[in-house]
Amino acid sequence: MFQFDTLSLVFVALIVLGSVPNLFYSFGYLPHIERKWHYLIHYFAFILSMLGVVTAGNAMMFLFFWELMSLTSWQLILTEVKEKRTIDAARFYFFMTHFGFVFLLLFFLIVTDGDLEMGFAQMRGIAHAFAYPTLLFFFLILGFLSKAGAVPLHVWLPYAHPAAPSPVSALMSGVMLKVAIYGIFRFLFDVLYPWPLEWGVLILVIGALSSLIGVLYALSEHDIKALLANHSIENIGIILIGFGMGMIFDALGLKVLSSFAFIAALFHTFNHMSFKSLLFMGAGSVLHETHTKNIESYGGLVKSMPITALTFLLASVSISALPPTNGFLSEWMIFQSMLGSSHIDNMSLKLAIPFAVFALALTGGLAIACFVKAYGITFLGLHRSANAKHAKEVNKRMQTGMLLMAGVVFSLMLFAPWYISHFDAALFSLGHASVYDTIFPDGVWRIHSVAVHGGVVSPLVLLLALVGVTGALWYGYKALRVKERIHRTWACGYRTGARTQYSATGFAGPIRRFFNWLYRPNEHFEKRTLAGHATKFDRSHYAVHVKPLFETALYTNAARLANGISYWVYRLAHFEQTRYAAMIFNLMLLVLFSFRIFAHAFSWATFALESVVMIISIKVLIIGDKK
Amino acid sequence: MILYLFTIAILLLIAPLLLTFIKALKMRLLFKRPLPLLQGYRTFAKLMAKETIVSEEASQMTRVAPFLVLSPLMVTIFFLPPAAGGAFYVSFVDAFTITGLLALSAFFLMLLGLDSASSFGGMGSSREAFISALVEPAMVLTVFSVSMMAGDLGVGQAGVNLVHHFPKEHMASYLFAAISFFILLIAENGRIPVDNPETHLELTMVHEAMILDITGVYLAIVETAASVKFVIFASLFASLFMPFGPGLSAPLALLVFVGKLFLIAAAVALIEVNTAKLRLFKVPNLLGIAIVFAFLSLITFYVLGA
Prior knowledge:
- The structure holds 2 protein chains of 2 kinds.
- Chain A is mainly alpha-helical.
- Among the domains of chain A are: 1-193; 504-545, no CATH class; 551-623, no CATH class.
- Chain A has 26 helices and 5 strands.
- In chain A, the strands form 2 sheets. Chain A has a two-stranded antiparallel sheet with strand order 1-2. A two-stranded antiparallel sheet of chain A has the order 4-5.
- In chain A, a hairpin with a 7-residue loop joins strand 4 and strand 5 (537-545).
- Chain B is built from 11 helices and 1 strand; from the N terminus they run H-H-E-H-H-H-H-H-H-H-H-H.
- By secondary structure, chain B is an all-alpha fold.
- At the A-B interface, helix 14, helix 15, strand 2, helix 20 and strand 3 of A face strand 1, helix 3, helix 4, helix 5 and helix 9 of B.
């Protein structure tokens, strides 16, 4: 029924670390929720179901808890049903999560031979006997990546996460996406183990694309929770880059490098859990005080909400992968594992890796820009709306939640070696080489790369050095006893006001313009000019909205196709009732003929003959004469 | 150890001098009367003596950010490759970390720009974010490539390795990496084709726009940070792409090192005199060249081994 091996326990730890601060936050948030019982029941069921997924010992339990997790989170999105957008988002989520579930079910039906209570270890034999392992792999990644939110199955995240109450979006983004990562780990290692090189390359490509697309759409987003949801796509991409590198190295027989890359991926999974939960909590607090998700109507909140601002800053620095935070450490490990690509003999693969490095580095640069925007526009400057002006710090329980999560972020930074030793143990239990001694050959002060000529980093020394130098500078400043005068901002003679500040749209402007070919934004610009002058105007309004390209290209067209088909089915279904019998007869004919064609020797003559019979029978019996 | 600390002290001391030297050389080339070389120190002393004016719209960020802009750069100074042979060097920080520390400094500088609610600050931050987002991949790829030729990702060790073993057999990729890094040096320090450090026309500014609203000691700190950043880039370029000199006796080696820094400053001045500032949306083209050269460097290394 249940199993508690090291990998499961590592993910249990992840869920516990993610949920405990969330509980505090959630109870602080509770007075503002109308349907309290509905919320609480589903909230606890959600956490328990996630624990169930990572400890499930057979396919039946796994699928049961997986579905329970999907349904409870779906109900949690529907906690505050006021807008039509929430219902749409919930419906979209429901559809996408079951789209993935179908593939998982197919996967399990094949690898268990129908006996869903079989343990995972026994499935390996059946999977190996199966003729098309790549099909199994596709089922697996379609099932799990649709939950994890990797490109191109990511489109539900920017809808579902903003619609849910903030503690739930923190849980969904911080923890639930990681449960999908657990699934990939578990079944790739336990069931599909010796994997070909191509699978790893595919995962690497998906990861690189997800990270870039996630961060680019995050930059153009003005809804703070949708911005964070897009960053989840980015971070899942980063995790998948590490994972893909691990798979590639493993397929090439470079076991040590492979373990290193997988550890990096696991570490980033933990890090993303910590800072993304914290960011969603911070965004939730801001939203709670200002009653708007639009980043353009925040501003100046650092003065009224210091705890939120401080924890949000910590999480922003960490998610931007700036040293010495935990986000930097895991991204550093992923870079180091890519540097190990010089060990690869396959030349075309070797030449491809720099492009992944490029994608990851560009992602890092854009993430910095995005979080300067998110933090700077939200917390700095002047209040951009009356709501922001009247904001005050949230209640103590919500603060406790945020501070505890900040503690988790700090612990991941300070005790990185301790966490890594557990990731190492988890990989060891999956039959991989143990690399802890190679990463930390001389104590916990330095993290070494396992690649030849790899780098070394020491988070603790860096932290101490930064704190020390900053402290010394500050002390020096205090010793100078500088006089201070408060005066309004100088703006070349104009008065600085809330409306003359730089907006989030303006901040992302240059980047949006550079990536115009991708965004294809809808721009609205209206200007009321004075007396026909082109340059004199008293009112102007500029708004830009970016519609996700993938959604329009992939999903809208798919929906259009489905609509078209359903229209024809509808037309067929509205004949007079006597023709239903004819339709059934024709379907049976079709099935029998198809069986004959595929099961017996195929010959063009019978195929043509049977087609002609089918067409005549459809024409005569169903379509009939035109009236 | 003493030599190590002495080198750091020298680097910190000549930081303002280098920027003044660029300015003076430019003025000389433009047939103007050059400013005295000690101007950088004078400005610093003057700013230190002034009172600070803090904008009333600003938050605590304005009081904290200047220190956080300078301290990552100060930390980076301690991790640079040794200028003289036998000098102590810190081996536990690699090139990615240095990239990260520079980004950390830029992160707080951008927040500082947004803090005072001035639209110029926002404009500067926005442009800095745009430029540094594109600098990041070029920087990482260049670092990646150089580390392969130097046989170590740690910059300290890489500098030492390059002195002992100049990568003659990889000359092509080495040169490509050098070109790429020099473009990054110009872009990251806000020199002319990318940003004009002397302009007073706010619409063209990047770095100056962000710090338009800070004064006194805070301004002195941020200006010091700018000069320290230039010294970091110049000495990285000097150690990684002009790897000669540290084998000499210590005083001579230091002299050669400082000479190299001035050579780089002179090259920057020559470029500044001979080019016009690019429009903001042409800057990606220049950075694109840096990225392409970084890729070329890696690919020639992989494919040709040259």
